[in-house]
Amino acid sequence: MRFKKSISSLKLPHYKSTAGMAAVRMPIPKEVLLPLSPMNAHSATASEPVVQVGDHVTVGQMIGREKDRGSSHIHASVSGTVKAIEPYAMGGAKGTAIRIESDGRMEKCPELQIPHPTNLDEFLQCVRDSGVVGLGGAAYPVWAKLSAAQKAHISTVLINGAECEPFITADHRVMLEQGELIQKGVELLKEFLGSEEFILGIEENKPDAIQQLTERFKDDPAVKIMPLSSVYPQGAKQVLLYNATGKVVEKGQRLASLGVIIINVSSLVKMAEYFVTGMPMVERIITVDGSAVKEPKNLIVPIGCTVRDVVEACGGLKEEPGKILFGGAMMGKPQESMDAAILKATNAVIVMNRKDAQKTAPSSCIHCGRCAAVCPLGLIPTAFYRAMELEDEDQRAALLQKEQVKVCMQCGCCSYVCPAHLPLAETNTAAMGFLRGWEKNHKEGGK
Amino acid sequence: MEQLVMSSGPHIHSGAQDRRIMLDVILALLPASVAGVLIFGIKALWVLLTCVLSAVIAEFLFNLIARKKQSVGDLSAVVTGLLLGLNLSVNVPLWQCALGSVFAIVLVKCAFGGIGRNFANPAIAGRVFLLLAFSGTVAGGAAPAPLFGAAADAVSSATPLELLANGAEGVPSLGDLFLGVYGGAIGETCSLALLLGFAYLLLRKVISWQTPVIFTAVVFLCYLISDGAQIALCEVLTGGLLLGAVFMATDYASTPINARGRLLFALGCGLITFVIRKFFGYPEGVSFSILLMNLLTPYLEELTRIKPLGGV
Description:
The complex is a heterodimer of chains A (about 450) and B (about 300). Chain A is an alpha/beta fold. Chain A has helices spanning about 120-130, 140-145, 170-175, 180-195, 205-215, 235-245, 265-275, 305-310, 355, 370-375, 380-390, 395-405, 415, 425-445, and strands at about 25, 30-35, 50, 55, 60-65, 75, 80-90, 95-100, 155-160, 195-205, 225-230, 260-265, 285-290, 295-300, 320-325, 335, 350-355.
């Protein structure tokens, strides 16, 4: 089953020059920096350190214990000595990080065991122990996502292998190199969640992955490998859900209430890996690319190594860096320095040269409608932009409510096509923030 | 190491540029401009130049006086001036041409906030303004005076639409209508040149095909039913229908922002054009229909609002 009409239509240059490069293990870094929170704006909760400065730690040993659904267990990604537990800031989020100096031995934690859960609760506990989070960028703990199965039957698992962001090929490599673990992950979810349908959505620009996985699952009627058109943002929740199943998460609804969960293919693989090796999430595949990088590569890196480390493993920089991104060219988060630490959810490090980092100065909206035409959700981004120009806050809020700015997922399509080079996506973020604040004040004032 | 850029995503851009879009429109208007000069003589060139220059100067001075950021570089004033010129007859005195441009730029565009904020198409408004202020001379009356070769003496100075309205005597052949060798405004007669411009705009993805095709098709079908194929074809090829449908009913600012709204816009333009031409015996159907639909644009946008995915 495939829906002819795709709700997203934006064709981007792929820049996926690393697609054919098998992931290679980078040299062991001298030290790693492991933030105790996911370092994104959504969750403020941090894990609690369970080691002290001076402690000797081994690979896979828990060093930070999660507090709630907003955080995850943090495990040492190298063996060595805890040098510091220090404040750490990234992209506006503040937290604490544990610095470990590597002894270069990558000694495994002796207490690790391969888990053998027998029911859903035990399974979820194991996933919780693994420290695996959503690796597509959201960093939401996978166990918390799967726990929806405790309340409602999850009939469909939508595995996200779209990888629609330019540059990134990490998921592509995972699908090519770790098909066995995808199979293992599917088996686990079948057994413990009781899901009947597995849809693995892959963009058509990865024909080798589609072919290999179709072959792998040819005897399993529960698994459908679904080729998706290579349009951005094919991998976004609403877009993927609609294009793969025809369903829509309506306002106020949760995905799980439709009997569906969406899990990134790399998250599924990381989860499955824990049940095979007993090793929690301490490393991942990332794509290192961008105009300033000498030899773009896919690397297997320990969580917590720095941009500097991964760039060095790629032959260093050939030009002065202009911008460093964690993630893709559309939604990637800019980093302040080469010392930024790779997080669990970092799927790519892109270092652009000065020229690529430059943005054209904005002019005026010409009402061409391209932003509206390209918005996968059917919003009118320029209306938000004009609303934000209004001086009267009540008028501004009313217009933003009417145009439903809160639906926006900041995919960036509008900014990408805008011939006036207006920062539309950025304005949408600001507009959402403004509206939240205004609604809060308004509510309090009214009562 | 210098400071890294910290701007938020997206970090790449399609490369689209408003100035480039305007340049594309100008390029798409070149065939019609050249055809106009070839058909109506060198006087046509002076009309076009006067309109363009006065439009640019008017915008420049407005920005200067109103202390606004200079915007003539975006080339939209050139487009407005050129479009207005192409909508005028060579017989319009140059001072009237200039006045029309100033009206279009200052009162219709700049006064409402400049590019992207004009409620109506400035060139259309300029033409209608001249039509009402100095009735008669705007579109009709100019016989072809070819730049090269002798004037075809059989061609009347009345526009085909006027001829059609008076009983279809002496209407030029369809071939002449297609090539534009008949009386009318500078840029509206040569259908061939206008279609070339249309093809270029489609190729460059500046406009989509729907508005021009629907607008024209509605007029054609209405006439086909009421008067038959011959008249219907003649109506489509004359009276500035193609010029209006391709270049003015597709103006970004004064038409709905969404595809469904633009569909209704085109339908409305076609119907109103037909009604004005057919029942009022008035050849100015295209300008008035676009102007009227321009005014309805905000309502069309409301009417065609869609429920966003995950919204209400």
